[in-house]
Design a protein that fits this description.
This protein is of the alpha+beta class. The protein has three domains: 3-111, Arc Repressor Mutant, subunit A; 139-231, SH3 type barrels (Roll), CATH 2.30.30; 244-343, no CATH class. It contains ten helices and twelve strands. It has helices at 3-19, 26-33, 37-49, 78-90, 101-111, 143-155, 228-231, 256-260, 289-296, 308-325, and strands at 24-25, 54-58, 61-64, 157-164, 171-184, 189-196, 201-206, 210-219, 244-251, 269-272, 279-286, 302-306. The strands form three sheets. It has a five-stranded antiparallel sheet, with helices on one face. A hairpin with a 4-residue loop joins strand 6 (189-196) and strand 7 (201-206). Helix 1 packs across helix 3 (37-49) and helix 9 (289-296) crosses helix 10 (308-325). It is extended, with a radius of gyration of 27 Å. The two termini are 45 Å apart.
């Protein structure tokens, strides 16, 4: 047996013993995992020699004395268990899919009780870590799609599919040579990056917009341009155009601290815009639509300085929003705005969102087909 498998087995036994008050039946535990009960008996003896407080409740049933905690398992620290918990929580959207189930199995191996039930969260005194699970897409409904592309990427097999473009609603039949499954934590969305034979170019597809997928037996040569490093070079998030534009945005003193504390794009530059605490964020971006939505999320706290086309687009959207809220009066209107229109306060729900923020409706809508994306 591989050494890692042996370690996992011993840790599983130790944790099971620690969680059972009545004691664990080694024969039952062995049958559950497909192990030899004689091997588990030797594992229990090894734990006892290593200093674990093993008690024999009755012949064949063992436990660890009350008060022993699983995070104290040899080689696994409490903060390591907490880190695994955080990763598992962040992957809530795709936990019950082909790419999430292996992580779930690992969690069960590390935290399972004598009855085979995994812990809901790390147990080591008072919890010191909490993670907000995504409120985005439930990928359980797309498990078949994910499993198909998972195998297709690994085995380099082409996929026939039907895909619905978000911006136009057009449904098209395509054959894709997938290069990578790509998870964007800011957009809380899973994408497929691949070569689209219909378009003759690299495209980025949102997994939830596939209507049907079928794995073929046709193998293809790997394309470096379908890896995220190349496909998303210069993109603000997942929308990439062919032209790279220099972008400069001024932020008010209210928004400046948040702008300063984050990296928004590779090679960005942040400079003081005056004595009032305003800053200018400068960066180079290939593809402006995502950036437009992100800037609008700051309302009157952001002003586009260049390029001119982005300034005009943001100004038009801001003017449209101001017109929509003009009749709101003193109370909040249907959109939940505040008196004074767009310039007084950022909207409670931002259209474009920011990396690391909460999920909002439509934030994954930028992998569309009308600009060469998906």
């Amino acid at each position: 047996m591989a050494r890692n498998d042996q370690i996992v087995r011993i840790l599983t036994v130790a944790h099971a013993l620690s969680q059972s008050r009545r004691g664990v039946s080694l024969k039952t535990l062995a049958a559950r995992h497909g192990w030899s009960w004689r091997t588990l008996y030797r594992d229990v003896q090894a734990l006892d020699r290593a200093g674990f407080p093993v008690e024999t409740v009755e012949p064949g049933r063992h436990r660890l004395i009350e008060g022993w905690c699983a995070p104290q398992l040899p080689g696994i620290e409490a903060d390591e268990i907490a880190s695994l918990y955080a990763i598992r929580a962040l992957g809530e959207s795709w936990r019950h899919t082909a790419i999430g189930r292996p992580l779930e199995r690992l969690w069960m191996k590390v935290t399972s009780t004598g009855e085979g039930q995994g812990a809901l969260m790390p147990v080591s005194g008072e919890p010191w870590l909490a993670v907000r699970s995504p409120f985005g897409i439930d990928y359980r409904a797309h498990d078949k799609t994910i499993a198909t592309f998972d195998r297709a990427v690994r085995d380099r097999l082409a996929v026939n599919c039907r895909y619905r473009a978000l911006s136009t609603g057009e449904i098209s039949a395509r054959t894709i040579e997938p290069g990578e499954l790509y998870w964007d934590p800011g957009l809380e969305t899973l994408y497929v990056i691949g070569w689209c034979r219909l378009r003759g170019d690299v495209r980025i597809f949102a997994v939830q917009r596939f209507l049907a997928v079928a794995l073929t037996e046709e193998r293809f040569a790997a394309r470096p341009e379908t890896r995220s490093k190349a496909a998303l070079m210069g993109a603000f998030r997942v929308w990439r155009d062919t032209n790279v534009k220099k972008v400069r945005v001024r932020f008010t003193p209210k928004a400046a601290p948040e702008i300063r504390e984050r990296t928004w794009a590779p090679g960005q530059n942040i400079e003081d815009a005056g004595t009032d605490g305003s800053v200018i964020l400068a960066m180079k971006v290939a593809g402006l639509p995502e950036l437009e939505r992100w800037i609008l999320g700051y309302g009157g706290d952001a002003e586009v300085l260049e390029p001119a086309e982005l300034r005009r687009a943001v100004a038009a959207k801001a003017a449209s929003a101001a017109t929509r809220y003009a009749g709101a009066g003193d109370g909040a209107g249907a959109g939940g705005g505040e008196r004074g229109g767009l310039g007084r306060r950022r909207p409670a729900v931002r259209a474009g969102g920011r990396t690391g923020g909460s999920a909002v409706a439509g934030r994954d809508s930028l992998s569309r087909d009308d600009k060469g994306r998906g």
